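fwd from M.: "can u put these together and see what the complex looks like"

so here's what she sent:
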Amino acid sequence: AQSVSQHNHHVILSEAASLELGCNYSYGGTVNLFWYVQYPGQHLQLLLKYFSGDPLVKGIKGFEAEFIKSKFSFNLRKPSVQWSDTAEYFCAVAGYSSASKIIFGSGTRLSIRP
Amino acid sequence: DTEVTQTPKHLVMGMTNKKSLKCEQHMGHRAMYWYKQKAKKPPELMFVYSYEKLSINESVPSRFSPECPNSSLLNLHLHALQPEDSALYLCASSSGVKTANNEKLFFGSGTQLSVL
């Protein structure tokens, strides 16, 4: 069974700072990886996803993530955060053979100081 | 229309009540999901329907009973719930095509359930 870990529970940054949120997964086969974001009072939205090909994936709102297979990692990055990036960020994984079973990490709360 | 619509938005029920949560999508998606999310916790998968058939049940207690009447609708029937079942219940859908290359969950806003 797949699992996913996010070690940063709460990250506080100032505007314009660079962001990196960690995500590590466990699965013995090919995986599909996702980052979802939940803005305050809103529902979950997909930021970006990796299925195959270029391990550096670009998503919406200037976010990107890099899949490093040897490290079982899929860290989320943004070079310069904005106050509007304040949200909860969830990494998620689906094993390719069970593509419908998308499992979420515990989430990282990102707070941006204006 | 890229919406997943859930009703009601809020529900308060007693432990002896029977209630139902409803979810609807008109994107032609063939996979629909129920997730449960407690405050400050990630969504936990409960059920997955694929082409109107239950394909995944994550060992959910029988007091939760899912139903998929057609490809656009997903219900969650609730009976004899416990206070610890209080949570946000999220419905999601995806294309459901098994290649997985276009799997993307579209989430509804959820039903905030309180069990007294």
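replying to her w this: The CA atoms of residues 15 and 116 of chain B lie 6 Å apart.
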